UniProtKB/TrEMBL annotation:
It catalyses: glucuronate acceptor + UDP-alpha-D-glucuronate = acceptor beta-D-glucuronoside + UDP + H(+). The chain crosses the membrane at residues 140-160. Pfam families: UDPGT. This is glucuronosyltransferase. InterPro entries: UDP-glycosyltransferase (IPR050271), UDP_glucos_trans (IPR002213). CDD domains: GT1_Gtf-like. It comes from the Eukaryota. It comes from Strongyloides papillosus (Intestinal threadworm). GO terms for molecular function: glucuronosyltransferase activity. Keywords: Glycosyltransferase, Membrane, Transferase, Transmembrane, Transmembrane helix. Belongs to the UDP-glycosyltransferase family. Its EC number is 2.4.1.17.
Length: 174
């Protein structure tokens, strides 16, 4: 039977969490203070895994190492035997819970601000009214590319002429 991840992470008996490193999993285990073995597979999971590793409350494992059970067992034992992983996970959790400004409060204040003042043109980005050429800097990029192509062509032509002059022999006429 399937069990919600948040319920699992809130269980006091949980000593370690093995995850692919999705943002949801990393956020939940960070708030709960649970050390992890992170096995990233794609996308943002690699970055999320590095965050866990940098804070030293987990170990990152290469997905190709799953073919060798000894590596997984070694990583699990390392986290369970070394109390610093658990201590660091608890410290990360404590820091997240004691943030000076909580995300709920920020969200509520932004919603109240939007409700009171509505749409404010001064907060719109200047790029909102730009055409595609300006927005993507094509008016700058295209001339630079053409200039680079012309420069490379000229340098190639000069080098070709120099090499040709050096390696062509002149026949003497008596």
């Amino acid at each position: 039977k399937w069990m919600p991840q948040s319920d699992l992470l809130n269980d006091k008996r949980l000593s370690l969490f093995i995850t692919h490193g999705g943002m949801g999993s990393i956020t939940e285990l960070s708030f709960r203070g649970v050390p992890a073995v992170v096995i990233p597979v794609q996308g943002d999971q690699y970055r999320n895994a590095k965050l866990v590793e940098r804070q030293n409350y987990g170990i990152v494992m290469n997905k190709l190492d799953l073919t060798n059970p000894d590596i997984l067992i070694k990583n699990i034992k390392t986290i369970l035997d070394d109390v610093t992983y658990n201590e660091n996970a608890k410290m990360v959790s404590k820091r997240l819970k004691k943030r000076p400004i909580g995300s709920k409060r920020v969200l509520i204040e932004h919603i109240q601000f939007a409700a009171e003042f509505g749409r404010l043109d001064m907060l719109d980005l200047g790029s909102r009214n730009m055409g595609m050429i300006e927005y993507y800097n094509l008016d700058i990029i295209i001339p630079v590319i053409f200039g680079f192509i012309i420069l490379v062509s000229l340098v190639s032509y000069v080098i070709f002429k120099i090499v040709k002059k050096l390696f062509t022999s002149k026949a003497k006429i008596d």
